[in-house]
Amino acid sequence: MPWSSAEKAPPALAIGPWALPSPFLLAPMAGLTNWPFRRLALQYGAGLATTEMVSSVALSFRGQKTLRLLKTDPALERPFHVQLFGRDPERLAEAAKVAVGHGADAVDLNFGCPARKVVNSGHGAAILKDFKLAESLAKAVAQAVTVPVTVKTRIAWAPGWPSVFDLAPRLVDCGVAAITLHGRYAAQGFTGEADWEAVARLAAHSPVPVIGSGDLTTARLAAQRLKDSGAAGAMIGRAAKGRPWIFRQSLAAFAGMEPEEPSLAERLAAATVHARWLLEEMGPRAAFLLRTVLIWYVRELPGSAALREAINRETDVERQLESLVRFFEAGRFEPESGAEKGPL
Ligand SMILES: Cc1cc2nc3c(=O)[nH]c(=O)nc-3n(C[C@H](O)[C@H](O)[C@H](O)COP(=O)(O)O)c2cc1C
């Protein structure tokens, strides 16, 4: 345990019967939080890692492409937290059953995605415009499965609209076991700053655990926000890209210790493992994502622009990895002096 006294122990976070080993969690990110990324985050101490949002319609039809999003290893990922989106209670309930049949230990409902194509079809954050629908969705899923059901949402559709402070108790009445609040209005997209006062306010009144999300750009900030808000957990999204050690660092920061930066060898090892797992998982389909992922790991290192170009030019994965190794071996940069950087 990285913390040394009871006062420094982070809050205990449980999702239904699942006591999580850490309150610092990997946020769901579409196209990114596949099994390789989640596995790495969990290895670095994330208490939970949520899948990207999965279409309930596609999942209820058991489409092969969609079922791939449910890839996990039950020996390494418990609880397996699958996020679904949908606006038809029956379909969503059916999809939740399929997810549970494929190993889901908990199901999360996406009531927060503000992407245009998602909200234009009435999904994601659009659910926040209709609390009756939100209740029907939560109730249908909670009645369909025996695993805990959680919801991830935003403060409200926009200022002036009914807010999560009204919605949360209704969701809890429907059987929802935890609520993640990304402290922005849907209409804000990702602009402005996440409002952690809103997270604190919800946490203070909620009978179920509240997990805060938004702008946790460093381990220190994640630890600080968790402490100050009184939330039961904190989700880290963008700042975990290429920095899976942020989960280990956040626990250290919570205990008042200096968050240790990874050595260059550790950075290279993490990048290589991430790439290898993606390849194992996706084969040739990994090519585009793999480039992105490799670049995450070097972006904050001086002199990485040339490597980035080389990786983008190169089509052969093994050669991309060789370029990466050469970059680290050449060591034409000074290791960071423990200073934390913002999100990549
Ligand atoms: C690329 C990307 C994809 C995302 N996909 C999802 C998603 O599938 N489901 C979801 O609930 N939130 C999604 N989010 C929102 C994150 O889970 C998180 O709430 C948000 O990014 C704020 O946290 P951060 O500042 O730590 O990144 C996504 C965010 C990003 C940047």
Q: Which cofactors or ions or other ligands sit in this model?
A: flavin mononucleotide
Mean pLDDT: 93
Overall, the morphology is: globular
Mind telling me the CATH class of the largest domain?
Alpha Beta
Biggest sheet statistics: 8 strands, parallel
State which percent range the strand residues make up: 5-15%
How does CATH name the architecture of the largest domain?
Alpha-Beta Barrel
CATH topology of the largest domain: TIM Barrel
| Structural class by secondary-structure content | alpha/beta
CATH homologous superfamily identity of the largest domain: Aldolase class I
Percentage of residues assigned to helices: 40-55%
H and E string: EEEHEHHEHEHHEHEHEHEHHHHH
Walkthrough of the structure:
There is one protein chain. With 344 residues, this protein is of the alpha/beta class. It folds into 2 domains: 6-254, TIM Barrel (Alpha-Beta Barrel); 264-330. Helix content is 42%, strand content 13%. It contains 14 helices and 10 strands. It has helices at residues 35-43, 56-60, 64-68, 89-101, 116-120, 131-144, 164-173, 196-205, 219-229, 246-254, 264-282, 287-298, 304-313, 317-330; strands spanning 14-15, 18-19, 24-26, 50-55, 81-85, 106-111, 149-154, 176-182, 210-213, 233-236. An 8-stranded parallel β-sheet has the order 3-10-9-8-7-6-5-4. Helix 8 (196-205) links the parallel strand 8 and strand 9 (210-213). The longest helix is centred in the last third of the chain and has 19 residues, at 264-282. Residues 1-7 and 336-344 have low confidence and may be disordered. Residues 27-30, 32, 52-53, 83, 110, 112-113, 152, 182, 213-216, 236-239 line the site of flavin mononucleotide.
